[in-house]
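Researcher: I'd like a candidate sequence for this fold, 327 residues long. If you have to choose between options at a position, lean toward the conservative one.
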């Protein structure tokens, strides 16, 4: 004879198994409806197509109605199926929310996070250290990393392709994006030491004095370039860009070899002491900011929220001059 405790466990297990089966049927129904195909739905769910068909048939038998019209080239919800779909989606969302609440309360964070960064961060942002610290605290979370321009990274945040980014900012972030500035520093014009160039003997230069002069700068879509283009437009001219490179270190090396004047973050230009002469830009002073950025509106999973919290604690907000790059 089984004890009451064992009977309770058996019934609980059977109930959970039944609930999981029911949720699977609802998930299959929603996916087939969205994909308009059993084959595509099975591929998306990573299960065999006959299993998807069988589970939906079982659901239809339990409800006593056909939920999908299989007569055409594509699968479509029947009138009853269309009425059921909102409830199916709501049930799946409720279960996902319950799991998320449990994970947050127990500290069990799993899943995948995607991080984006501009090409060169300089000394102001220890991104490898940040990611290593997050991995140590949340070893069950898979981390992905990609490089791109600031504009593309902000767009990727808004569309949900990435969860966190380090970007260069020329102004306010777009709506729906939260930021924490981690580097804020001036931009300078840098030329090779000893170059027979008027800039090589100066300590400051007005921005409009660069009109018509060939310059080296990061490409469009980067924070540094947006700052330069905006300031030049306000001064009534368009900068003449002779060299573009996605890595500001490449610009510094080109300038150090006497190939022209590069617009660089001050800390980067100073790191080439003995090779580059840095000239401060005035009227106006140009500044660049590196910032942590994340999606502030819309849903975010526990892993993404944990990553943002970790990053903001690891890289404190800076509003004064600091080392870094304006990518």
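Model: Candidate sequence:
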């Amino acid at each position: 004879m089984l004890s009451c405790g064992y009977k309770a466990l058996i019934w609980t297990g059977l109930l959970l198994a039944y609930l999981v089966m029911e949720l699977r049927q609802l998930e299959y129904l929603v996916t087939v409806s969205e994909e308009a195909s059993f084959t595509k739905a099975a591929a998306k769910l990573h299960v065999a197509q006959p299993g998807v068909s069988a589970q939906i048939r079982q659901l239809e038998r339990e409800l006593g109605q056909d939920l999908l019209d299989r007569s055409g080239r594509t699968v479509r919800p029947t009138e009853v199926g269309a009425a059921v779909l909102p409830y199916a989606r709501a049930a799946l969302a409720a279960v996902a929310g319950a799991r998320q609440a449990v994970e947050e309360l127990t500290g069990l964070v799993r899943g995948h996070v995607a991080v984006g960064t501009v090409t060169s961060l300089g000394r102001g942002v220890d991104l490898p250290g940040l990611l290593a610290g997050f991995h140590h605290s949340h070893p069950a979370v898979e981390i992905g990393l990609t490089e791109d321009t600031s504009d593309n990274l902000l767009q990727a945040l808004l569309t949900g392709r990435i969860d966190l980014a380090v970007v260069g900012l020329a102004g306010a972030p777009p709506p729906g994006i939260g930021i924490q500035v981690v580097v804020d520093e001036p931009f300078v014009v840098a030329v090779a030491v000893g170059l027979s160039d008027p800039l090589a003997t100066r300590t400051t230069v007005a921005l409009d004095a660069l009109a018509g002069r060939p310059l080296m700068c990061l490409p469009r879509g980067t924070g540094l370039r947006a700052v330069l283009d905006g300031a030049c437009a306000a001064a009534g001219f368009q900068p003449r860009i002779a060299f573009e490179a996605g890595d500001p270190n490449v610009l510094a090396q080109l300038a150090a070899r006497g190939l022209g004047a590069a617009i660089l973050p001050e800390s980067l230009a100073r790191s080439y002491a003995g090779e580059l002469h840095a000239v401060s830009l005035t009227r106006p002073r140009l500044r660049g900011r590196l910032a942590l950025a994340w999606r502030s509106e819309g849903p975010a999973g526990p892993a993404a929220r944990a990553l943002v919290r970790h990053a903001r604690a690891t890289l404190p907000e800076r509003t004064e001059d600091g080392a870094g790059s304006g990518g």
